Amino acid sequence: MSFQSAKLVFAGPVGAGKTTAIRTLSDSAPVSTEMPMSEGPMGDKTTTTVALDFASVLLDDGTPLHLYGLPGQTHFAHMRPLVMEGAVGVLVILPGDSPDIADECEHWVRSVREINADVGLVVGITRTDIGGGFRMDEVRQAVRRCGRPIPIFTFDARDRDQASHLVRALLLSLG
Fold this sequence. Notes:
Strand order of the largest sheet: 2-3-4-1-5-6-7
Number of domains: 1
Helix content: 25-40%
CATH superfamily: P-loop containing nucleotide triphosphate hydrolases
Mean pLDDT: 86
Structural class: alpha/beta
Radius of gyration: 15 Å
Order of helices and strands: EHEEEHEHEHEH
Low-confidence stretches: none
Distance between the termini: 5 Å
CATH architecture: 3-Layer(aba) Sandwich
Number of strands: 7
Strand content: 25-35%
Largest sheet: 7 strands, mixed
Number of helices: 5
CATH class: Alpha Beta
């Protein structure tokens, strides 16, 4: 698939690594709406996205890729359809150390498909190195319950090569 430019959206729960992945991929400083967390820190995380994150990167062929991050909190769910408007694909980012990762996966995949049933999807799982109980088969089962197959990868959101691999997999799946 060839684009003059493309819009990708990063979706997932608070603390999954969406903002980190966007910062890692970006060619310049991203626009971010990070604010202090109202319920206090989650471990080392003290801020959260309240509207969206935005950055851009040029693909190898010179195509501009626009990256948007959705807020993970439920009370900002009204932003999701607005941010997803015109997206060719969504990367669902999930924290591998979450005991509820399968439920989170199913929730986010279904939420994205409710907004746009035809959008391309890839699931990326972060923090599997610190999630002692992480099981890929639970995530695969959650994806199967949602219908069409979706590529699933583990990756480090701080590693540009790994984050780029996830984006490439999504773009290739668009066909």
